[in-house]
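Data card: per-record layout.
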Amino acid sequence: MENRFERLHPIVNFIYYAGALTLLILLLHPIFSGAAFVVILFIHFVQDRFKGLKQWLIFMVMSGSLIFLFNPLFNERGRHVLFVVSEHHITLEAVVYGGMTALSIMGVIALFVSYNLVMTPNKLLFLFSKLLPQFAVLLMLTLRFIPLMRRRLEEITVVQSSKGLSLAQGTWRSKARIGMQYIQVLLTFSLEEAIQTADSMKARGYGQKKRTSYDFFILNKIDIASMFFLILLLVIVFYGRFIGHGQLVIYPLMEKISLQGNEIVFLITYMMFLSFPLLIEIGGKVRWKLFN
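The structure for this 292-residue chain is written out next.
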């Protein structure tokens, strides 16, 4: 079922996801990264009850865990030594930096999963195809590359398993040989489909004239108000980041993790921006109950 945030104009959706991605990368602070990750999880719960996120759960957790573990193992910088393992110093600074980086990476992955649920290819083409047709296609193909390759690999696995070629059985050498066959089939399949898509686009004259769109989106008052609200919050958060908020200085001397004064207000503003899909959903339900 489509929620209220998905029914907004594509430009509003794009501003939200572009801004959220930028802020997740810029604001490296344990409290900011942790709060942002929790908000994104709530957004997934409202959107589809974690159905889309479950497919990426293992990859997301593994990526975050590796970053969290490897940073203290390969980085000895820091004044606060927690313990020593085989003459290697595990420092508090390295653990904190690895933890907030892991939260940021997991937040970015979860945000891209939500993006794929909301920003359909038609919405993306509607925004950019008239001005930048080549960029629109390249961006669309890039963002759907990993999910598409994953689905193709699942199809190839089913077909190859029916022929007795499975990665679940056999020695490591045989598994590696079968795995290379999987990759060979995957690449061949992808290249052949790419050539067919390119020929089809060329035959239809893509990019030669202004493109019409199957879906026509109208910018109404709610969309305009939402767009200005998001831009206002973005300006405030960028200004706060410019004056030093939302960034934990670790080296050479680590700052206190706790927030004080204006940083708390800055955090609330940041959470308001990330919680925009939730605010739209809650506001729509409250409005429906008031007028019905």
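Known properties of this structure: The beta strands are 81-85, 88-91. Residues 133-208 form one domain.

See the next section for split statistics.
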